[in-house]
Structures are given as C-alpha cells and as structure tokens.
Amino acid sequence: MTRYNMIAATAVLAAVTGFTAFPHSANAATLLDLLRGGPAKNKPAANSVIEPQANGGLEMGDPEPLPKITGPRYYTYKAEATRAIAIPASAGGADTAATRGPRDFLSSVKVNATADVAAVVEDYYKSGKPLIWISETGVTDQARAAMTALAAADVAGLDPADYAVALPSDASDAADPDKVTKELARFELALSAKVLAYVNDTVRGRIDPNKLSGYHDFKRKSVNLAPVLNMARLSPDVGAYIRSRDPDNAQFTAMKAELARLKAEDGQAGGVTVRIAPDTLLKPGQSNPELANILAVIKTQASDALKAQHGAVLEGYAGTPEYTPELVALVEAFQQEKGLKPDGVIGRATIRALTGHSNAEKIEKLLVAMEEIRWLPADFGQRYVFINQPAYMAYYYNEGREQLSMRVVVGSKSNQTYFFQDMIQTVEFNPYWGVPKSIIVNEMLPKLRQDPAYLDRLGYQVSYNGRTVSSTAVNWNTTHSVDVRQPPGGDNALGELKILFPNAHAIYMHDTPSKSFFKRDMRALSHGCVRLAEPREMAAAVMGTTVGEIGKQIASGQNRAVQVPQKIPVYVAYFTAWPNKNGVVEYFDDVYGRDSATQKAFAITSDARSRS
C-alpha cells in the first residue's frame, strides 16, 4: 500500500502484479488504482489458462522464484550542504588603507552558510544597507541582544550550539594591523547567518524529514528570509523579534511549557523509584522475582478505590515470586484503571503504565516532537482530523476543539503507516477492496501456487486485462497481469466504509471486521492503512451529518462513493509526545523507531554546523 511498493514492483514484478483497471464505475474506484500498471499485450479468453511465455530457458509452467516486495527504507541522514558567503569587494566602503573599516573586509573574510541563508546575507550587504551588529569600534548592544536570544534556543527545542557566534578578538597583531577590523567583519557576517539559520529552523525545522526515510512525505516549508536582517536591524528589541518567529500554536505552546517544567525539575525522574526490568513478561500462573517490584509500584500508583478493594491482598503479599489468582485480579483492576486491556498479563504496556517515562526520556521525546510539529502547517485549521500513530488514536476537531476521539489500528513495523498530510475528499460505502500489490505478491502468491482455487473459495474477483476469470484459470507459477479485489460484504477487509484522502501511498481510514484488535494496547497491526474503532462516527463527522444517515447509506448494500461537502485536512502524524485536549502532554512508545532516526539527524546536523 505504498508508493515504494509501486516502484519496486515495476522493476521486479511488472508482469506478476501489473494491475489493469476494472471497468470505470463507482464500484471500481479505489485508491489501489494508483498501484496498477499498464495493460497486458495479449487478451485471453475468459476461461483460458494464462500460460507463461518462454523466458530464460524456463519450461512451460515451471515456477519462477517467489518475488518479494519490501517497503521504504530509512536513510543515512546527510546534513544540508554549505558554501562560503561571497560579498563583492565593491560592496565595501573607501579603499584606502587609512580609512578601511569592517565593511571593506566583508569580501575577504570566510563565513559558511547553507545556500538559502548565504544568498540572503549576500543580497543584504551588496545592497549597501548599514551594518547591523558592529560599529567602527566594536560589537553593538543589538548584537549582544541577538546573541542572548540565540543562546536561549533550547527553550524552543533547538540547540543553542547551532547558533553560537564567537565574539571578535580585540587583540592587535603587529604582523596584521587589520586583524581586529577583519574579526569585526567576520562577526558581522557570522551573526547575520546565524540569525537567519535560527529563523529557518524554528519555522520549518532544522532537518529535512524527507531525508530521514521513505515513510516521511512532506513538502518542506519555504521560509521568507529576505526581510529578516532588515527587520532585526530596525527592531527596538531584536531578541523579542527573534523569539517571535517561534511557532505559537496551542500544541507547540504546551510542549514548550512542558519542556520548561521538566528542565526545572533538574532531571529528577519523579514518581516511583522502584525499577522494573523493561523486558519483563509475566502471565497468570507463572513466577518471576520482578513481581515484588511490580506490586510495590502498584501500591504507590493505585487509586484509593483500588486499594480499598484489594487492600488485604496488598497488605498480605509477602514478596513471593508466584503470580497467584488474587494477585492477577489486583493487576487486572490496575490495568482497567489505566485504560489497558485487563488480562492480567504484565508486559511492556503495563510496565510503562507503572513506571512511566523518565524525565530524560520525556525531554528527548519533546525535542523530537517540537521538531516534527514544525514540519506541519503553523495553523492546523478549525476543522481537521489528526491521527497520532504512536498513540493509536484518531481525533476529529471542529471549530478548533476536539469533538471526537477513537482508537485506531495502524501499520505494523514491517508495513509502517506514513507520516504525511492530505485532504479528506470522499467517503465510500460498502467498498470493494482492491488487494494491494504487496499483499498479492508477499502473502497470496505462495498460497496460490499451492492452491490455484484459493481466491475463488474466498470469494475474491480476479481480472486479467479487464476480463473476469476464475482464480484457477491463472497459471500462478509464472508471470501474468492480474487484478484482485474483494466484493463488499461482511467479510470485506475494509468493512462498511472507507474514508479517502487520495495520496501516493494508497493509505486511507476504514472499518474492519477484526474488531478485537481495538482491545489491544499495542495496535500496530495493519498493512499500513488506518482502521477505525468507530468508523460510522468518523464518517458522520467528516460528512457533516448524523450516524443514522451514515447507517442508511450502509444499509442500502450498494457500493457508493460520496464526496464530503468540504475537503478536510487530515494529518497522519507520528508524535511520541503530544498534548491532549486539556493541554497536558502525554508520552508514547516509539513504535517504529522514528524518534531515534530523528535524533541521529540532529547530531549529524549539529556536527556539520560546528565544522562549517
């Protein structure tokens, strides 16, 4: 269900899964059309067996090696290239040795910056505008105010070292009588470049998300840097001007306040001090020495109601490792309180609920989240859908307020859901499921080679070059062009409806017959699309109607695609730290390891900047 799948299959499986379209109708309109290739050259009869062509000496009917379609990959991040800022000598002042000042040396000092920053610095000084940060005798108060603001970049989730500028030396040198003046010139260019770099970073983020992995898909923001230096020069409070460029939406403001709070605690983890081994897995009837630590934490974390109900068990526990039925009941009650599946199994989710994240972990998650939010629009809009993959939740906002929230299932680690934004356009009722290329190749093809009737028995429709054929009429041992879809019905993988926001990754929201998945704490279980626990409610929200009206559309049994009255932004996001509707930041596990990739990119970027 990904753009990468489409590309990979083109090279490896152009014939095995080169889809052709069903007849054009509402019945056939699915996002999987994006994955389909060109038509086959030969059209078989409806009931004929599709035989292989002679290829590389293979005999007729010999199985070709089973192919495999893999998803996008994570990249080795490369920092943005820099170049020297080039100020022409003509941009200086007088050219006599007796009168040369800092401006005259702008063309000869070396300062590196990214291409966009360098171009703006060059344009400013070539135009003959006044120097900003220095006078003929030294550093100005304006410069010191700017440096103070840049040194506080960590307040906004950035690294102050990325914007540090050394003060110019005032030590004379007999061998170079212009040394002090040159130092001032270099300082002037360097501070201008750092101010521009900060504005760039705080508006759009310091790393390019598209260079992290094939799962990140963003049109990177463009930042209008042209007026920044002149605004900084004219500003009565340059520090306030620099800070004004930080995001100011409610989510970023909540993160910023949370970061300040955590730092004020001086790295203290807070909460319980008992440690539980993170890889602990304890099921009813088993024994584990970690049980004593688990019960000690529950005793401090549990509500008064739970303690009252299970007080005798807590008080009577003697530190033994046996996980007895009465202790299981206690743990189940604790899980229920924390919104977890009350199954008595003590695993990763339960331990996380017991111990929480340390302050250091929370700060790391916040720094990544404050970077990621810069990739998105500064204003999400008054009406939108927000899907947070690590939280396994989807939210509908209207008039800027959360009106609906529900559990979701997202892609598994091997079939990850992308991080991108789009516009909701259509709700399709009683949908067909066009089987993705990756599923046909990776999961169905091995079974079809053993049992060609596999798809017929399941009730799937198979098409060859637009003509319906039996699954048994296809020679699955060799290359052929086929299209597979599942008709609407109770067993349909998409359930009663799907909500479409056409994108290159063929990802959408949909219903599912697998309702039990929503009871799980870890819900990274799909092939990449987003399964909704309450699809009718979400459809009613985006359609601006009632759940009852949605039910009528479904009850008709007809496949029907209906445009939403107004396109709605949808953010298919990935945040391991995110404020809830009350502004309280919540923390989640890094299910795909994307925070780690972002943190590595931070380090690579900072290292490159320190050497430029």
TrEMBL record:
- Give every L,D-TPase catalytic domain span: 383-550
Q: What does the record list as GO biological process?
A: cell wall organization; peptidoglycan biosynthetic process; regulation of cell shape
In the record, what terms sit under GO molecular function? carboxypeptidase activity; transferase activity
Q: Where is the signal peptide?
A: 1-28
Q: Per its UniProt record, what SUPFAM superfamilies does this chain match? A: L,D-transpeptidase catalytic domain-like (SSF141523), PGBD-like (SSF47090)
Active-site residue list: H510, C529
Is Transferase one of the keywords?
yes
Functional pathway: Cell wall biogenesis; peptidoglycan biosynthesis
UniProt keyword list: Cell shape, Cell wall biogenesis/degradation, Peptidoglycan synthesis, Signal, Transferase
Please report which protein family the annotation says this sequence is part of: Belongs to the YkuD family.
Record-given protein name: Murein L,D-transpeptidase
From which source organism is this entry?
A: Rhizobium daejeonense
